[in-house]
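Re: manganese (II) ion structure - here you go.
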Amino acid sequence: MALKEREESMRLAVKQQANVEDTGMKVNDEVHLAPKAVQGKVVETKKPGPPKKLFPSSALFRQWGEDLPEAEQKKAQDLFHRFGYNVYLSNRLPLNRSLPDTRDSRCLQKTYPPQLPSLSVILIFMDEALSIIQRAITSIINRTPPQLLKEIILVDDFSSNGELKARLDETIEVYSQLHPGLLKIIRHTERKGLAHARNTGWGAAAADVVAILDAHVEVNAGWAEPILARIQEDRTVIISPVFDNIHFDNFKLTKYPLAVDGFNWELWCRYDPVPESWIALDDVTAPVRSPSIMGILAADRLFLGEIGALDDGMLVYGGENVELSLRVWQCGGKIEVLPCSRVAHLERHHKPYASDLGAALKRNALRVAEVWMDEYRHMVYLAWNLPLQNSGIDYGDISSRRALREKLKCKTFDWYLKNVYPILKPIHDIVGYGRMRNSLDKGICLDQGPVPGNAPIMYTCHEFSPQNVYYRLSGELYVGPLVAEHQDAQRCLTDPGLREKPTLEACSKAAQSQLHIYWDFKQGGAVINRDTRRCLEVTRELLGARVLVLRACTAQVWEIQYTLGAWGRPGTL
Ligand code: UDP
Ligand code: MN
């Protein structure tokens, strides 16, 4: 962008910032208690102590807002509660603030072809703060070569936040004076969820390449060129930039190390180490092959359409990133993380659109499992502790996604696991899973106990993963969330030999150290250690407490919630 234009855009940014008035407070309102000059003399105000902390347990004030007067604390807390990040501060930071350049210095030496594809940037949002969206737009305008930036498309997924109506329209007008036609907005008239919102943006885009981002991002210097150059080279690559973290409280940036995007069997995203083969290249600017994306992506616009864009049947949040990733890999594309393309992303403290995402994540995960995961689909049910039949979860109509899989002649999930994501470990000999109850008292369940710690306990039954139990034909009994990664941290129920209390140990380590981790168990029978022959039992203590012990068997029996395959009768107990 020409320097003059940049200056103008900065002026615009400042002007807009002065318009931001979410709380009835002006941006330049004085919030600090400084000595004031009155009639030429400096009046020493009595230095007050720090204001009382009105919200000592709020995450917002853990590392921020020390000196904020009480009335301001209330405003800030109210905004934090509504948005999940520090809108009070966002409204007071420049829209065109600078960010530390988090690229490796070798990225700066890279050169790119003079002719690159054009770019449509899509920002989707649902009840984000206006200043956050403005800062995203400003960063995109200031940090993307203007001749390549064709448009910025805003997709409002039916926000209820008032400032995203007329005030956002006015903002777009102001930008349009300087950048005619650059900004567009599409408003959903009902809530469609993020996958659908991303598709809406994609459908409206016209450039060669689309970058589909969250609205709470600030793109960093030089973010676009590596993406455009890589897609020009290979139109079948779906790209993830590297994310850095904007802290939800103080808006400082933390540089994240390079990693690839993966997921566990709940299909919840996680970072995995970069592959050895990439390290061997000894080029920190080289694209890194990645099993998945986190959500944000860039792609050749037409190629993304050819492989089916995103699955509109994904509701609210989650799963759509894994669905796209499996489809891309299994149907002839690839996914890469580009180390020189960096986007700062604000990780919210909580989401404005749902207090518990579990239900949406679970449902969407089953959708992925049923369409793409073949004989490995049971792993998703196991991780979510659901029965394979009659799970009671309606994952919607998947016929069109199955038809797409046929049409694209896609490879199997087995191929994907072996060739793309070998560190995700399937397990085929789990025969019992779910809650584990003792005949003495059906209201309490085997539980992994306090974390950190390795002492399993009996605890009032609940639906969360610390009470997941998995029994394998091998004799291993996992307690706690299913990890199932190679080099895993899965914990096995262990008889330590001497003492009365069982422990939980990393299964791989326990096997090597010849700890006693193998148990005999049949549905409705005793749990007996294969080496020590001691039984897992529950004592009846004074005051009704139940304590988990290992001792000579007294004919206590156990039941596990679901059974599978080769073992016992199928179905729920
Ligand atoms: N979003 C949306 N509709 C929804 C839920 C989310 O458009 O029903 C948007 C949201 O505003 C954000 C993007 O989807 O821009 C991704 O959601 P979020 O940032 O909450 O996910 P995270 O980045 O934390 O995984
Ligand atoms: Mn986000």
